[in-house]
Fold these 2 entries.
Entry 1:
Amino acid sequence: MLELDEIHVYYGNIAAVKGLSLTVYPGEIVTLIGSNGAGKSTTLRAISGLLPVRRGTMTFLGRQLNGVPDHEVVRRGIAHSPEGRRIFPRMTVDENLDMGAFLRKDKEAISEDREMILELFPRLRERLDQKAGTMSGGEQQMLAVGRAMMARPQLLLLDEPSMGLAPVLVDVIFETIARIREQGTTVLLVEQNALAALDVADRAYVLESGSLKLHGPADELAEDQEIVKAYLGG
Ligand code: ATP
């Protein structure tokens, strides 16, 4: 579905991603893990057209993705829930969800998806009229994921969905990711919480300083004590 072939991504003269290759197959949950600054968020930003790829190629559903502007990436079926809950704080929860569907015209399907999202996150349903900026951190995180889902993406990019959440909400988020996949959405997940990410994912890529360190089935990585010690903070 998604293929990155030796991509390089820079901030000015500084290379943040150096020759990364990875593949995501339809229906998978793939996680990208690694320490702070490893290049995980940068990789998601490149896929969603927020940062240019200087070398290498990205392909989505057989079409080249390099240089495609962010709104066109959404149109092609990729939605990005960015790090740090970038919701619209002065809009209500309801209005934020609507914004997620801004490129869609299929009114009936939009309201079905809205209903599905409110079932996934009952907390959002209780607070539809609340200004998003006054919601708790965890609620804003749910809203960010819900809004990305409103684009009805084929591929959902999730950047640190569990960041800053209380343990009980972390569990809710990971259960929700599993349910999102059951509903047919492929997921590329960036997480600091590596063990929880490996638990929900099928496969994992471990990044270090912008390069691929290793990759494999998530359960195998989680069981390898040396890998857990070296890369996963275990
Ligand atoms: P974290 O888990 O800490 O979010 P990450 O793996 O997502 O880390 P990135 O955010 O992709 O890491 O950052 C990769 C590198 O690029 C880091 O060295 C970071 O300092 C640098 N970087 C990120 N954003 C910018 C920016 N806007 N300008 C300059 N350098 C940046």
Entry 2:
Amino acid sequence: MTTTTPDVDAVVVGAGFGGIYMLHKLRNELGMTVQGFEKGGGVGGTWYFNRYPGAKSDTESYIYRYSFDKQLLQEYDWHTRYLDQPDILAYLEHVVERYDLARSIKLNTEVKSAHWNVDTALWTIRTADGQQLTCRWLVNALGLLAKSNIPDIPGLKSFAGALVHTNAWPKDLDITGKRVGVIGTGSTGTQFICAAAKMVEHLTVFQRTPQYSVPSGNGPVDPAEVAETKKNFDKIWDQVKNSVVAFGFEESTVEAMSVSEEERRRVFQENWDKGNGFRFMFGTFCDIATNPEANAAAAQFIRDKIKEIVKDPETARKLTPTDLYAKRPLCNEDYYETFNRPNVSLVSLRETPIEEIVPEGVRTSDGVLHELDVLVLATGFDAVDGNYRAMDLRGRGGKHINEHWTEGPTSYLGITKAGFPNMFMILGPNGPFTNLPPSIESQVEWIADLIAKADREGLRSVEPTFEAERRWTDTCKEIADATLFPKAESWIFGANIPGKKHAVMFYMGGISSYRQQLADEAASGYRGFALE
Ligand code: N01
């Protein structure tokens, strides 16, 4: 066994919400030498890349931010109920400046490989542009939804106009006055559709599966409300971190079928009027995501709204979902209303699938050529493990992460992986399914505590046991199986990528319980770990 001095104490890969805070913790608070790498041309992660019109957070502004800096919470304002992408990017850039982090982040630098060396107990990191360095600690903050899913559609590359994925939206692409087509109607697609319809000459929406969307209730926020919120931030964060989904409302404890039909509709209507997708799913009744009958009642309420809102009955029919209401819930300002506009048309790919893409546009099975200047792929992500698998990431014995993840991605606590000592993941597989910033903070703080302990005690390596990881995976699966989410085809279980194994990828027990488990693990002296 040899010990070599590493080039830096830690490497942090990714400069989004997770990487930025991790870098601050390790460098500014623990006094370590840290090198950050970011493949984008700026910081911000998701919020750097997803610049498509309409991109915004569907968590309310006041809790779509860090909570650790009380001063910053007082200083940084918001003006709308939800933050648009430029606002969030500006916020993250501000945080980077506030903590003088830019000098530690190499932009435009993709990490291609990370290999563990058992003899030196160091990681060797290589970047796409040929840099190499060693570190003791490796923190991957690669993004949960960061690897684009590009569908395999015949002729895709032959399109003569601008072909863009929403996750790689060019800074200079202006769709004003253009003929635009969009494939995909998830959170991204529906946000894009609402915004683009107001800008383009014509928008053609290619929809494979209809979606349940509820109003977001977006709009300006009164400065007096902002001031009041700032006074109550301690209480607010306490509530958020002790809730289930961390969206700032109290989750309901009432079962949908325990009340009369009239009362159910009243509650649905009340929450429809308040706005927010998570509120509609978790704030109305406690069992919408678990009880098929409750789920059907919520789904029917939304279907009735579609019929009421959409003027053309044929368009309304095509827009109406028939499956479970068990994907990540959507909310938008005016999704269904958008289809009443004369410049928006809907193509149901279930009825007329895309036959091929040609230089002029998209040809569907009914022989129609939809002529386009811009074709937007809002087709989502190879979520959760996509970016890990894309990296040449090798732990003990030179074993690639893919060799460990043949049955689906696993971790211990959504943060660590057996066989990968001194490596951490922010929002790794089987992490919490919540509003993300408070979960990210919980993970970053826990990682920093463990690293600090290892340094204090002169530990050479920390690594979870395979047994702890197996138990955590079983727990996540057990909780997920008690919900309806695995029964819906979505990215949450990897169902959106052809050939990807359906596997549990989230801890669905809520942020409060998740934080408790992190605290218990630390309090037990890290009983799920081998500390050497
Ligand atoms: O991706 P998705 P997303 N042919 O996978 C369709 C987060 N997010 O980017 O349903 C035709 O949900 C696919 O159709 P189907 C949030 O967590 C957050 O929209 O599979 N269509 C679907 O309609 C969200 O859940 C915000 O039949 C194809 C769409 O593309 C997550 O990101 C904003 C196709 C993909 O939907 C992912 O959302 C935006 C094909 N070959 C995103 N392949 C916030 O507000 C796919 N589709 C914070």
